[in-house]
Amino acid sequence: MPASTVNRGRAWAVLALLLALLLLVGCAAPSRLAQLPAELPERVELAATPFYPQTGYQCGPAALATVLGAAGRNVDPAALANEVYLPGRQGSLQPEIAAAARARGLLAYETGPSLSDLLAEVAAGRPALVLQQLGAGPWPYWHYAVVIGYDKVLGKVLLRSGTDERQVLRASVFEATWHRGGNWGLVLLEPGTMPAQPEPARYMSAAAALETAGNPGAAKVAYAAAAGHWPRAPLPRLGLGNLAAAAGDWAAAERWYRAVLADDPAQAAALNNRAEALVRLGCPDAARLLLQQGTVHVAADDPLQPVLQQTVRDLSAQAAAVPAGAAVECTQFTVR
Amino acid sequence: MRNRIFVHALCVALLNLASPQAAQAALVGTLQAVEASGTRAQDLAIVNSALAREQVRGQMEAMGVDPSAVDARIARLTDSELRSLADRMEQMPAGGDALAVIGIVFVILIILELVGVIDIFKKT
To answer: Which of A178, A288, A322, A328 has the CA that lies 20 to 30 A from A82?
Structure first.
């Protein structure tokens, strides 16, 4: 057998092995775009989304400027670089991207991990910032882009990406790269607007982070919208109570905490904070009674148990310190 | 004499540190409650967030962030974000990373591209 045939045979064997490996990894799975829920429109393109071509490694600032612009905040990507770009990593990190949006009074909501969660937001008119991993194996290549549409029939996803104003990507390729990026998607909402498919924990952590960003007014609007959407959920009303407390309105705070406990007496945070509110209102006896009756409902392995126990200890320590002539009638808190 | 002044100043500083926390220590914050309502073990939350803040500050400066911008960037992050950054700032995916394309790597990438696993080459 001539040497060249042997070499060619070996080359084919290597290629076949590579292909077999790829199939094993499951990369050739068909796109799920055709299986999207029927209520999502067949074809969406948010053509009015602004476009900021990426310069250098700055796809983070460019993609962020794109979604900020779509949310009505026109910011120059070069200015955003000072807020999110890390020269040492030649890139930008997800928490800083979200924080830059929050600092502009927007709710930075992480979409769910499924393609339908992501595209439901796009269908609702919100371009979605995504993280893709475009490389493979030992050569990772992380990239931020913005999904601006899709086409169920053609099986395509549309993006603003890098220097490409209208990238048309096979849905299977988008899914694979998005999946390797951790299925991370971010949409920016005006506080008061709910996501297309809101999930309570992710929504509330985005809303509460607005407080960290120094935007309690925006957080309040976001909590109120959540309390309207999930009337029995504890966290939105706890948040409203905490904002009232921070503003010094302990009577209003006490009412919010009480409402949470009426629906779910096992809520340790509301129980703890209501006791504190009662003390602030000059009713430490009512606070002690509340804790006596309330702590039995809280699970023994509740992560907030240490805080609750500390409050119980603090209250019994200051037993004698009852302010004379309390401003409110305390008996109203001890009768249901 | 100088020592005594220093000690007095230190005492005043420590008292100032303690007083504002005492006023709010008893309330469970909304973010704290959100994290506690998650299913994850919460030993994580015990990690001192002040320590995490200092770690992130040091790493940001080492990564070339303008020192005058570091404070503002850190102030925006929530405690849980600071903790995850302090732990994994070197490993977290940084969108925008460079791609080293040399020889054989390039060939493999082209094969992967043709098979449809990756999409890094511009098509027109």
So the answer is: A178
